[in-house]
Amino acid sequence: MKSGPGPIEDYALLSDLRTAALVGKDGSIDWLCLPRFDAPSCFCRLLGTEQDGHWQIAPTSPVREVRRRYRDNSLVLETDFHTDDGVLRLIDCMPPHEQAHDTQPCLVRTVRGISGEVDVKMRWVVRFAYGEAVPWVRRVREIDPVLDEFILAIAGPHTAVLRGDVLPQRAEHERAHELVRTVRAGEQLSWVMQWSPDADDLPAPIDPEQEVGDAEDFWREWTTKISYSGPHSPAVNRSLATLKALTYAPTGGIIAAPTSSLPEAVPGNRNWDYRFCWLRDATLVLLALDDFGCSAEAAAWRSWLVRAVAGDPADLQIMYGIGGERHLLEWEADWLPGHRDCLPVRFGNAAYRQLQLDVYGEVMDVLHLARERGLPEREETWALQRGMLRHLEKIWRQPDRGLWEVRGPDQYFTHSRVMVWVAFDRAVRAAEEDGLPGPVHRWRDIRDEVHAEVLERAWNPELGAFTQYYGGTTLDAATLRMPSVGFLPGDDERVVRTVEAVQRELQHDRVLVDRYTPTDSRNEVDGLTGREGAFLACSFWLVDALAYIGRRSEAEELFGELVALANDVGLYAEEYDARTRSFAGNFPQAFSHLALVNSAAVLYGGLTRAQRSRRDGKPR
After folding, report:
1. What gap in Å lies between CA 500 and CA 545, rounded to an integer?
2. Beta strands in 304-385 (DSSP E)
3. How many CA atoms lie within 13 A of 66 on its CB side?
């Protein structure tokens, strides 16, 4: 069994709607944070070695082939190991807990003999606090009130309990537990790992087979909500299920990704923690969920958003914790070697302090869309929006860091200016279409001023395109969103020429689109060194833009090729490295899956921004 983690694309996702685990093709769970997405990990091999924590179950003999799949559209994962001795199936799941707030997370793992006789090895290495805390591990045998035997691991505030049909033994001269067992065709063995915040109040034993069955039932019932039946429906359904899996059920917040510090390129230092909720995702989330039947999830996300941003509009952040937390202090874990030796390993994200003016437009847009989609209106929502607009009126002329969260100097980023226009445009529409009170004449004047400014200062006639920032000469894929937010129609010549310029300068390998072009030295815009992979969401934005400018067949072909880039279980990372044909960045990435679903809506149905409202419950 190898010591280091596998490639990013080798992983599959498990989720209980509170936290998530990543399972590799080698049968190893290499990442799990307990009890929440943003908690410290107990398995951290993803960012280090097996000594940083993992739980592997796999054949001892060479594996000739690995086949895996999710059962239907659930998050119950089946991995078949084909060996010369037979076929072994590994079944993994985290029982989802959408309503029970007091239910602690657990992992259920089962091996089943499919054919022949296969020797199986299990290795269980628990390390709390991102691999730094080695727990006290002991075997416990209780007989009152019933016989209960388990392995108990304790370190500070964390407790893990491992139960199973056959428990592993302590490995000699190692801080690990191991088990080797022959599994014949028709035989089955199961293990359950549970977490508790209190070593004196341990979770009771559960029936693993029942839990797997209940998990399947949960996902099967949830899948019935999905109303999409167009082309590439498996990809759309899997993306929607992934977005559900990245939802923190107690609050409705959706994390950008369940991982931290997976590098955007190897070697490279663009390694960030994405286990938080970005306001920028808000509009895409609501569109993706509500377009195809997941209106309850859309409403929950809107509720999280309103709670998170409540307060002084001057304190608005670009991102928050899954419970609405505001302090996301960034620090480095210097004891971890990093995924494929890419340093630093960062936890927390300092970008939460940045000024990014586009978020005002994103929040105004999503709340306007929620109103249009007929989601129940909250009394305080419009007051909150008016407060945001009052503050935006004071600061909208300032430069900012832009949606890519650059760590270089502030600029007048074109996308940020467009989204400032969106903020005031949605305010005007709310007044005109919904009769909501406010200084609509002043909002209209600012909206028109911003629109004229962007057309004058962001357009480069020599380049024949809108540039990344005012007076610049470089491109930014974010300008592809201009027609989708309604800033300019798709048939505007400037939109068409910008799309063509992005294709010339930022598109490569036929389907991939870079956000912008960093250099190998320190980049003057983002303040970072090194390169990154192609940003998958930008590639889907090109699909949308091509459709808006009337090149539908090209958009459909590109969409199909992007769908084919998913890994074997339908998941996407943040980026794709064309040189190595591998994923890069945090995984699975909500932004990529959101962009896929929204492209499907643009191409094949679903209510897009371009369509009128359905305030009466029906599209107009």
Report:
1. 10
2. 319-320, 331-332, 346-347
3. 18
